[in-house]
């Protein structure tokens, strides 16, 4: 768990700084605080809604598993569904960010 957690923390640190810079780059100086605040609010709200949606998905998939497989198998199936959904969403966001990047 230490390796992936360290990698995630490092990556998120770099992405959040780059995203904040991208949000405030074209904004007039007097509105930079507002733009930064809106970006941070969107990030926090997105995280909260994302965790709630993924937990709901995990619970729904876990409850749909046959009782004969056991509780641990149901929990594993729900967790896998949530992780695959999060990975798919991250891939989609990455592709969108490439499309929205600077136009040369």
Number of domains: 1
Structural class: mainly alpha
Strand coverage percent: under 5%
Helix content: over 70%
Summed up, the helix count is 3
Q: Summarize the helix and strand pattern as letters.
A: HHH
For the termini, the CA-CA separation is: 40 Å
Are there runs of 5+ residues with pLDDT below 50, and where? none
Provide the residue-averaged pLDDT: 89
Task: Tell me, briefly, the overall form.
Answer: elongated
- What's the main sheet like? none
Please provide the count of β strands: 0
Supply Rg.
18 Å
Structure report:
The protein is mainly α. The chain has one domain. It is 82% helix and 0% strand. The chain contains three helices and no strands. α1 runs antiparallel to α2 (32-64). The protein is elongated, with a radius of gyration of 18 Å. It comes from Paenacidovorax monticola.
């Amino acid at each position: 768990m230490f390796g992936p957690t360290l990698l995630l923390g490092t990556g998120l640190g770099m992405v959040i700084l780059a995203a904040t810079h991208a949000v405030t780059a074209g904004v007039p100086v007097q509105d930079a605080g507002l733009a930064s605040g809106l970006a941070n609010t969107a990030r926090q709200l997105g995280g909260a809604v994302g965790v709630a949606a993924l937990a709901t998905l995990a619970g729904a998939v876990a409850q749909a598993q046959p009782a004969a497989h056991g509780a641990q198998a149901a929990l594993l199936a729900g967790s896998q569904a949530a992780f695959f959904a999060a990975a798919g969403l991250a891939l989609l966001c990455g592709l969108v960010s490439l499309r929205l990047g600077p136009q040369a």
